[in-house]
Amino acid sequence: MRGAHPERELERAVEQSGIVREGERLLIACSGGPDSVALIAALHAAAKPNGWAIRAAYVNHGLRASAWQDECVVLQLGAQFEVPLDVVTLEAGSANEERLREARYDALIDVAKRNGCTAVATAHHAEDQSETVLLALLRGAGPAGMRGMRARRRLAAGIDLVRPLLAVASESLRQYCHVRALPYAVDPSNADAGLRRNAVREALAALRPLFPGLDAAVARAADVLGQEQDALPHAELRRCVRERLEREEELRDVDFLHVEAAVRALEGGRTGTFQMKSGVALRIENGMLRGITRE
Questions:
Q1: pLDDT digits over 16-64, tens only?
Q2: Which of 142, 167, 152, 59 is nearest to 108 (CA)?
Q3: Which of 6, 65, 125, 255 has its CA 20 to 30 A from that of 13?
Q4: 1 lies in a domain?
Q5: Pairing relation of β-strands 272-277 and 280-285?
Q6: SS3 state at 138
Q7: What span, in angstroms and rounded, lies between the C-alpha atoms of 274 and 173?
Q8: Cα Rg for the chain, rounded, in angstroms?
Q9: Which residues form the domain of 29?
């Protein structure tokens, strides 16, 4: 995060994403880790100008002796930002990841309903999305799983799940905490290589130095799959452009960004020549695809 006020970059990203709607009543799921600490701070900073009413919730699964430290961090944040806070302690049970997740969301839904919240916000970020997509691939989940996590989806009747940080790198969230001198806890279970998600996390960490754009590429692929499954007009235009390009052998592997530029021109009713490869371009006139030109 660069600039005179680098912390504002994250806050602007949350505001401008459009994921959280104006006037929303938000319940922020806060675990005390750096990601959710950054989320509660960024949402608090942007709440007043956007008319958001926010409160937070901490869910203690009763499985770790160190959970009280996480709770202390969340309590401090609640006091610092004057955000109402609910602490929910669950009975210790199965350590199965899926069951823990279900119990956590059930608790969050209950708190949201009791307080009239229209959305539950979680701190899932770009690396979480990459992990989710790879886990879906390894499970053989198919296209539905490969679209990854949605930035906004229905969680329960009258309550949506929102993920305002899904395009943000985890390192940016940690830096935000440091810049704003915010406390956070570190979950020791993140180092447990016996957990599938942690094993995938380690594998992706080893790949990132070789593929610096890894998370952005995975997020883009997931977004494209989601658009196609939802039959969005943008996806249909992209398909038409791809089909036209595939008629030419040398254009069957055109970079995604070049295709998207042409799609946006079609959507905007624009006229112009859009480079696909060196010496080869698409000609668009008044939002209509007219053909391919060569130099």
A1: 889 999 999 999 999 999 999 999 999 999 999 999 999 999 999 877 7
A2: 59
A3: 255
A4: no
A5: antiparallel
A6: helix
A7: 36
A8: 22
A9: 7-207
